[in-house]
Amino acid sequence: MSAIGHAGKIMCPKNILLLLVMNLLFLTAPACYADIYKYTDSEGVIHLTNIPTEHGVPYVLVMKEKRVIFQLKGDLAGYDDLIAKASSKYRVDSSLVKAVIKAESNFNHRAVSPVGAQGLMQLMPATAALLQVRDAFHPETNIDGGVRYLRYLMNLFNGNLPLVLAAYNAGENAVLRNNNRIPPYRETQTYVKRVLHLFDQYSSRNGTR
Questions:
Q1: Do 92 and 100 contact (CB within 8 A), yes or no?
Q2: Which residues of 128-158 are buried (b: 16+ CB within 10 A; e: fewer)?
Q3: Which residues, 6 or more positions from 150, have their beta carbon under 8 angstroms from its beta carbon?
Q4: What is the model's pTM?
Q5: What are the residues facing 12 on neighbouring strands?
Q6: Sheet (strand 9-12) strand order
Q7: Catalytic residues
Q8: 69-102 pLDDT, tens per residue?
Q9: Are 79 and 97 in contact, with CB atoms under 8 Å apart?
Q10: Is the Cβ–Cβ distance between 137 and 205 less than 8 Å?
């Protein structure tokens, strides 16, 4: 799941925390879940968030994420031409694009994340709008927009691939706020490792590594 703009916060008093968490479970089950963390501030207010962004705060995981979404089987090879076209256009390694798509949607062009990211490369609606992707479920436009965004991130972070992937997952501002380091989010750190591993696999298959 791409987490571009994924962070969100909810504040609630203690006596409705259980109800809120139950509602979250109901709304997301059985197809998918999202990590939900909580902490209690000095005034006794409980804060819930899917990405813990506050530093020095004792977050507690109250609900664990399970990714992807619709039960449709992804087409693992049917997008090769579209990937090659966008990769050449924006000078991004096609093996990297495949790795991102595999991690994001498992090649399911109808995939939707718990926070609303859409399509093969899991573009958030706001990001898709900035990239002028009118239909994020259309494979060609989704891949073109996602690869264009990868190129932007590669330029922004001087080709530092772990930072590029962290920004793709958690948002570029999350990386910048952490002094150009991978943010301390378990999901993002796992995501970066997974995509790099997939990148090595696809590169080996293509004979580029």
A1: no
A2: beebebeebeebebbbbbbbbbbbbbbebbe
A3: 90, 92, 96, 97, 100, 164, 168
A4: 0.66
A5: 46
A6: 9-12, 46-49, 36-40, 60-63
A7: 104
A8: 433 444 567 899 999 999 999 999 999 999 999 9
A9: no
A10: no
